[in-house]
Amino acid sequence: MAKQSGLGDRLFVGGYDLSGDIGSVQSINASQALQDITGIDKSAYERLGLLRDGEISFNNFFNDASGQAHVVLKALQAQADVHGMYLRGTTLGNQAACLIAKQVNYNLNRGADGSLLGSVQLLASAGYGLEWGRQLTAGKITSTAAENLTSVDMTAAGSLGLVAYLQAFSFSGTSVTATLQESSDNGGSDAFAAVTGGAFAAVSSAPNTQRIATATQAVERYLRVALTGTYSSAVLAIAVIVPGAHSG
User: Fold this and answer.
1) CA 140-239-98 angle, 5° bins
2) One domain for residues 31 and 96
3) Distance, CA of 139 to chain centre
4) Based on the domain organization, do 68 and 145 belong to the same domain?
């Protein structure tokens, strides 16, 4: 990939697409605590990696319409955990940063020029830290019937299992189930088959957010999403992280 700007990016929080109300993203931070274990016989530091951490922080414009920034962010702060998903553009296979977090603030500032802006910080919770992966949907998609989505070439197989995130923004119907499928050659001689442990729980209403993680296992090079169920409209976004493969 070549150098890129941040034009055309998206930010989803808690099953809401807030992209149009976000003025800037200050931080997409993946970090790790360190313990200094340098002995007196060393001439440089020795360190051990400790707990992982993560953060997504951003500024928003005040918008009190239903499903928009003010209404969503003032409510999500009271929830135990919030799912954040930052998309680098909306092309299938592009990078995605995913985070289960606590929304620690929702601060509004009225500027001297009359502007009204909010600032929000999402700090990692549940022990996962920020996870960089790839988009298995082209941004936010609308599906109207059961289907197999286009596959993504992860460029290499993995051996440590996978993690996947789903955000559902709206839904009409009985239910839809998103299942990850894999193939070593994009369905050539190796037909796509369900990833063991790679199915999300059925979605019957929205907003809906989920994170799944498989056991430590082999993951084939090509991944896609299979949507099944009875529904007339499902608007959702899915991202996957495959440790050991080029998933970020």
Assistant:
1) 100
2) yes
3) 11
4) no
